[in-house]
Structure formats: structure tokens, C-alpha cells
Amino acid sequence: MKLFFSHFLRLIILLVLVAVGTFILLSFSPVDPIRAYIGNDLLHVPPEQYARIAARWGLDQPLWERFGHWFWRLLQGDMGYSMLFNMPVASVIRERFATSFALLAGAWLLSGVLGVTLGFLAGRFLHRWPDKMICRISYLLSSLPTFWIAMLLLALFAVRWPVLPVCCAWDPGNNAGTALLSERLRHLVLPVCALSLLGMGQIALHTREKIASVMKSEFIRFARAQGDKGWSLLCHQVLRHAITPALCLQFASLGELMGGALLAEKVFAYPGLGQATIDAGLRGDVPLLMGIVLFCTLLVFAGNTISAWLVVVLNRSLERPDAL
């Protein structure tokens, strides 16, 4: 219970600091929310109407007064109103994240499974040609930006060989309520592949190093002396000890995954939370940006906390006498 309250207190402090820092940074943005909202009709808007819009949105108030009003509403459960989507910020985040969740979950699972599998094979055939090939591929994927991978997949499998959809989360004419599951899955393939390649290389290299280290440990020599060998030794002993850091790294990489999703959704015109973040930034929708930043901060903190708890729980299970 003490550990829970400690993490909860750290979360509250983190959210407050992130909120203050984000609000200050957004105040230096060159984007005028009113000009972005009015668009080409700005020349036909008299100064009096411009001032009324600014007063309605609270943009005529000092910075700290605006932040105080926003923070007080947040404490009451009101995240504000999105000027871009003309609906409450909480509703925008809920709808957009529901679309992004399938993308993030699919990429998270695929990168973890492929990364651990490739790292396991590289560690099994250490310093041989499978290991060298996997290492080169992993280093290459780790150095490539997400948007470049996304555009390459788009050019190959949607333009050169049009076997998959070019963009969006469903076919034109449909929406989230009418799109079929098979249709959604087809539109998910390319974004999930592009996003999963972002973290796969890092997990593969990390798993490889851990397996190589475990293979040299004393308890593996003891297991070999008892008769364990080959794939039985690798699966029952080595992989059990190497999977712990891979799982922790996977949960700790949620922030990187969400950053990559922002670029992937832009390339594929995927109507998720990342696309909404970019649109809100370009249009100066401060309430929506603040809500998204706090929501993403909460998710990243949750991933890091789960990662820390996994280290403690899994290490305790491996330290039991019957774990060897």
C-alpha cells in the first residue's frame, strides 16, 4: 500500500509539472487559434467580432489566469472544449483513442513477439550467420525513422503492388459504426507493420545480449550438468530468464511507441489520437493539446510503473529454489 501511494504521489506531481510546462510552451506557439479557426474568412471578420471570440475562449486573459481557469475545471473533471472538433476534449480523446488502440496494441504485440523471437535465434546461434544477419537488420531498423518506413511500405504494398489500402481506418463511405471487422483489419496491416518495426530491432538486440549473458551463467552450467541440453535447455531455462528484461523493455517503450504512432497515423491518414494531435497543434487547439498530453503522460507513466513492478515480481519468481 505504501508503494502504491508513493507511485500515486509521483504521478500527481508529474501531471502538474507536465501541465505547467506544456501550457507555457504552447503560449510561445506562433499559431493564432482564432485565425486558424476562422481561416479564409478572417478578412471579413470585424475587429469587434474577433475580440468577442477571443473573450469567449479566454484568450484575452493573462497566461497564468488562463492556466488557473483551465486547471480548476480539470480538477472538477472538465478537460475543456475542443475548438477544432467542436466537442468536449474528453469525447475527442475517447473516440480517437478507441481507433488508435487497435494500432498501438497490434504494433506492441507484434514488435514484442518478433523482437524476442529474433533475439532468441540470434543468441542461440551467437557469432554465426543467423546472429550476424539478425543484428544487421536490427541495427538498420533501429536507425530508420518511422515515417520513412511507413512511406516505404505505402509505396510498395499500396502503390507499386496495390494489395492493401492506401489510407484511413475503413473504406470511403463507411465510419466507425458501419465498418466491418475484416475491413478494419485490412486497413491496420500497413500501419501496424510500420509501427512494430520501430521497436522490434531494439528488443531483438536486448534479448540477444541477455541470452548470451545467461548462457555463460553458473546456473546454466548446473542445468547442463543435470542433463539439460539443446532446445530444452534454451526454452526451459535460458528463455525464462531472458524474457524478463524483454517484457520490461516492452512496457517501458510505450512512450516511443506513441511517438511513432503520431507519425504513422499522419502518413496513413489514420484517424486516431496521433492525427488529432497534429491537427490540434497546427490549428492551435490548446485545450485538446493539453488533454492529449496529459492522457499520453498517464499512459507512459503506467507503462513505466508496470515495467518496474514486473522486474520485482519476475525476479522474485526466478529466485525461488524451484525456479532452477
From TrEMBL:
<dbReference type="GO" id="GO:0005886">
    <property type="term" value="C:plasma membrane"/>
</dbReference>
<keyword id="KW-0812">Transmembrane</keyword>
<dbReference type="InterPro" id="IPR000515">
    <property type="entry name" value="MetI-like"/>
</dbReference>
<dbReference type="Pfam" id="PF19300">
    <property type="entry name" value="BPD_transp_1_N"/>
</dbReference>
<protein>
    <submittedName>
        <fullName>ABC transporter permease</fullName>
    </submittedName>
</protein>
<feature type="transmembrane region" description="Helical">
    <location>
        <begin position="288"/>
        <end position="312"/>
    </location>
</feature>
<dbReference type="InterPro" id="IPR035906">
    <property type="entry name" value="MetI-like_sf"/>
</dbReference>
<dbReference type="GO" id="GO:0055085">
    <property type="term" value="P:transmembrane transport"/>
</dbReference>
<dbReference type="InterPro" id="IPR045621">
    <property type="entry name" value="BPD_transp_1_N"/>
</dbReference>
<keyword id="KW-0997">Cell inner membrane</keyword>
<keyword id="KW-0813">Transport</keyword>
<feature type="transmembrane region" description="Helical">
    <location>
        <begin position="7"/>
        <end position="28"/>
    </location>
</feature>
<keyword id="KW-1003">Cell membrane</keyword>
<keyword id="KW-1133">Transmembrane helix</keyword>
<dbReference type="Pfam" id="PF00528">
    <property type="entry name" value="BPD_transp_1"/>
</dbReference>
<keyword id="KW-0472">Membrane</keyword>
<feature type="domain" description="ABC transmembrane type-1">
    <location>
        <begin position="97"/>
        <end position="307"/>
    </location>
</feature>
<feature type="transmembrane region" description="Helical">
    <location>
        <begin position="101"/>
        <end position="126"/>
    </location>
</feature>
<feature type="transmembrane region" description="Helical">
    <location>
        <begin position="138"/>
        <end position="159"/>
    </location>
</feature>
<comment type="similarity">
    <text>Belongs to the binding-protein-dependent transport system permease family. OppBC subfamily.</text>
</comment>
